[in-house]
Amino acid sequence: MPDDKKVEDAKNPTAKATMDSITAELEIATRKILEKDALIDDLTLQLQEANNILTAQQKSKLIKEIVPHSKIPVDQLQAKTVAELQQIKIAVDSATPSSPNIHFDALSEDRNKRSPLGDLYGKKQGEN
Fold first, then answer.
1. How far apart are CA 44 and CA 38, in angstroms?
2. Which carries the bigger pLDDT value, residue 112 or residue 18?
3. Count of structural domains within the chain
4. Quick check: is 58 in a domain?
5. What Rg, from alpha-carbon coordinates, does the chain have?
6. Residue 78 lies in a domain
7. Which pLDDT value is given to residue 119?
8. CB 3.0-4.6 Å disulfide test: which of 64, 84, 101, 128 passes with 80?
């Protein structure tokens, strides 16, 4: 039988060379695929770590905004997801009365002199 193999190889040297070439190319392609798979796995881990950091930052920000206006313990808030914390913040914001940020400065004459609008009656300071 081994002699038959040698005879066959001798008859088809072109086919053998082609098979060897294809086998070598397959090994190179397989090695490249394995390298790319390893790179994809590494990048996936990095992306998961970045997402975990961003999620923790979002949760921290939301918890800081919720705690002053709520009686929910911090440990319960930390166990919530970002979406749940956003819903809690919306509820807390709607329940918290808003205080207008109005500052009256009626005693300041300098301000009326500088204002092109004048006082409530449309007259500038010094006009009658």
1. 10
2. 18
3. 1
4. yes
5. 38
6. yes
7. 56
8. 84
- Specify if 123 maps to a domain: no
Containing structural domain, residue 67: 2-95
Q: How confident is the model at residue 87 (pLDDT cuts 50, 70, 90)?
A: very high
pTM reported for the whole predicted model: 0.53
What is the Cα–Cα distance from 55 to 44, expressed in whole angstroms?
A: 16
From the list 39, 35, 36, the residue with the least C-alpha distance to 47 is 39
Overall average pLDDT of the 41-49 stretch: 97
**Predicted confidence (pLDDT) per residue in 67-86, tens digit:** 998 889 999 999 999 999 99
Tokens of 113: 């002199």
Name which of 93, 86, 43 is nearest 63 in CA terms: 86
Rounded to 10°, the helix 82-95/13-66 angle is: 20
Residue 94's nearest CA partner among 60, 71, 69 is 69
Which residue carries 């913040």 as its tokens?
89
Encoding tokens for residue 89? 């913040």
Please indicate, yes or no, if residue 7 is contained in any of the structural domains: yes
